[in-house]
C-alpha cells in the first residue's frame, strides 16, 4: 500500500520523506489556503521533495476551464497529478488528460457508481473520502470494499486512493481491503509508528543494557 501525505506543509512533507516511506502527496484548495503559500510555488517545491505523484486540484467547474488550469499545473513538474472533481465536466477532463498521458486523480468520490465512472474515464486514481462518509452516517470502508470488488471484476487499473483518512483504524481497514493508496495528514501517518509496548520494551532493554556497563 502506498502512503501519500495529505498536506501542503513543506516541513511536514520533508519530515515524512526522510523516513523513506512517503510515496506521494495530495493537496486541495483548503490545504493550499491553510499553507498561506502561492499555489504554483508551493506545488513546485513539493514536487522537488518527492518523486511520487503530487495532486494539484483545478478550481474551474467547466471542462474548458479545467483543461486551461491543467495546462498550467502540469507544466510545474513531471510528477504533478491533476485533481478533478467527480462531475461530468471533471470526468470529461479526466478522459482528455489521461488520453494524453497525464496522471489524473478524481476527487470527492462518495459512491461506488461514481468510482466506476471514474475508472471508465481512465482515472489514474479515484479518491473516495472515507472520513466525510463516516461523518454523515454512512460506512466509508464499505465504500472502499465495493469499489475494490467492482475494479477487480473488470480489471480496472485505476488505483483506489483512500482519502479523508482520520485515524489509524481507517489505514488498517483500507490495507485489509486491499486499497492501493491511502492519503492522510502527517499526524496520522506518524501515529502508525507508535505502540506503547514498543516504547516500554525500549525502556526496559536500555535499563538492562546500562547494567552491563558496556558500549557499542
Ligand atoms: C484528498 O485528497 C483530500 O485532500 C482529503 O483527504 C480530504 O480530507 P478531509 O475530509 O479531512 O478534508
TrEMBL record:
Keywords linked to the UniProt accession: Cytoplasm, Pentose shunt, Schiff base, Transferase
Catalytic activity: D-sedoheptulose 7-phosphate + D-glyceraldehyde 3-phosphate = D-erythrose 4-phosphate + beta-D-fructose 6-phosphate
UniProt-listed Enzyme Commission number(s): 2.2.1.2
Residues at the catalytic site: 83
Annotated Gene Ontology cellular component terms: cytoplasm
Subcellular localization: Cytoplasm
Enzymatic class: transferase
A Pfam cross-reference name: TAL_FSA
The protein's role, per its UniProt record: Transaldolase is important for the balance of metabolites in the pentose-phosphate pathway.
Top-level taxon of origin: Bacteria
Annotated family: Belongs to the transaldolase family. Type 3B subfamily.
The species this protein was found in: Novosphingobium ginsenosidimutans
Protein name (record): Probable transaldolase
Biological process, per Gene Ontology: carbohydrate metabolic process; ketone catabolic process; pentose-phosphate shunt
Biological or metabolic pathway of the protein: Carbohydrate degradation; pentose phosphate pathway; D-glyceraldehyde 3-phosphate and beta-D-fructose 6-phosphate from D-ribose 5-phosphate and D-xylulose 5-phosphate (non-oxidative stage): step 2/3
Primary site of residence: cytoplasm
A GO molecular function held by the record: aldehyde-lyase activity
